[in-house]
Each structure stands twice: as C-alpha cells, then as structure tokens.
Sequence to fold (321 residues):
Amino acid sequence: MPPRGTRTPRAPDRLSPRPFAPPYTRSETRAQRRSHRPSSHRRAGAPKLEPALFTLAATLIAKTAENGGEFHGPSINEFFPEVLFTIAGIPVTRIHLIQFLATIALVLIFWLGTRNMRVVPGRFQSIVEMGLDFVRVNIAEDLLGKKDGQRFLPILTTIFFMILFFNLTGVIPFLNIAGTAIIAVPLLLAAVAYVTFIYAGIKKSPKNFFKNALFPSGVPWPIYIIVTPIELVSTFVIRPVTLTLRLLMNMMVGHLLLVLFFAATQFFIFTLGGWWSALAAGSLAFGFAFTLFELLVAVLQAYVFTILTAVYIQLAVAEEH
Fold:
C-alpha cells in the first residue's frame, strides 16, 4: 500500500495512445513548435499562398486579354524610328528633328544673350555669361592654363553646351528622347575630341609626341614590349571608345527607365483599372524621381565629356611631349 497522501500513478490507456510530442526548449520559436504538430492540429480549410498567387495572376492575364490590353514596355526599336522624310537623299527621323530643335534653341539662346552686351548685365545676359564662365574658368583655364585655355575654349564650350542641350531633350514633354541617344552624335563628338588632342600634341612637339606617348620616359627598354601596346590601345583606341559609349549608354538607359515607369502608370490606370490603379501612384512617383535624376545626369555627362577632353589635351601639351 502506498503511503497516505500520495497519488497512485494512472496506467496509460493502451486503447487510445497519445501522439508523441517532442520535447521543446524555451529557445525554440513558435514556428518550430508548429512545424512539429500533426497535420490534424492545423486549421482546416486554410488557403495556401502559391495557388492563390497563381489564381490572381491568371485572373489578371485573363482580364487583360479580355479588355484587349497589353503592356508595351520600352524597346530598343525606339532608337531606330521610322523615316519621316528625306533631304537630298538623307533620311530624317523624329530624333533628327529633336536634334534640329535643340540646335536652334542653343543658337537662339546665345544670340539673344550676347547681341546687346551691357556693362551691367540683365538677368538673361547674366545666365548666359554664367554658363560661359563656368566652362572657361572651371574647365579650360583650370586644366590648361590661361594661354592654352583660351586656345581651346571655343571647342570645349561647343562640346559642353551641345551635349547639355541634346541631353535635356530627353526630359522635355512631347520630345522624350535625348539627341545623344543615337550613336552618331557621341561618336562625332568623340572624333572631334580625338582629333583635337592629337592636333594639340603634334602642334606642341611635332617630332616627339607619338614617341613620348608610346615610349614613356624612365621605363627600362625591355619593358617597352609590354608598355608600348598598352599605351597604344589606351591612348589611341580606348579614349574615343569610352567617350562614345559612356555618353550613349547613359542616355539610352535613362530613356528606357522613364518609358518603363510612365508606361506602367498608363497600363495600371487605363488598362487594368480598379484597385490596380493604386500601383500607378508608385510607378508615377518613381517616374518623377528618375526625371529629376535624368536632369542631373544630363548636366553631369556634359561636364564629364568636356573635362575629359580637356584632360586629354592637357596630357598632349604637357612638357614631356
């Protein structure tokens, strides 16, 4: 007989065994405990996430097809528009017209800003002079000095403002594509920069320019077997290629991003409608944010292209050449 006050342990019921419950520690999370529960403990009829997403996607696709709507994202074909007309056998596209408008605007602004120069400039003249002084002081004279800066100032100024105005057309409504987004303009400007720094080097030292460029002083002669091909490629091949591709790709990618965001906004509102229109607020906000970013890129690319041209000229006219 067990002592009084103690409880006799109950024999387990062999007819209804309890399921084995693994021991838990306090450090285990609730999700880990839930994973060890038998399937009978889970809530019956709980929907699974994957079938719900597939059903939602199928419903969206069916509704889009039923309405005859289709999302048209940005395409590389936008940089190869249809020919509108020809001038003396030369095809003219929409991008060419944008380039013509940017050129006319550039010439008109500088003509209006400099036709009646005054000692005390007006507001418009001050803006034009500020732009010209920026290129003259911060790029030309800062890198090339007073003498060489004045010599190459016209070409540096032309490169800077041409790229700037052509880039800005990418964020102007109804134009919506940069004039530098096709390879012709970046390639032409890179060729101008290429010819300019080679001319400056030959003008400075006709006999020693190519020699000093390909055979730097202070290098042991056996090392020239490695150094000379590297200098040839980096100086006379990589420079124009990088100038072209940097400007071209920045403008192309910027245009594709803007088209993507604003096309998505239009798709959410006018094609899908309903509560999908709420997503249009996000895509529209991203579109405006990237528009401001494209303004910064337009100015930055003009500055980078111009300052690299000045650096190449400065290296060509250096004393060792």
Notes: The chain has one domain: 80-316.
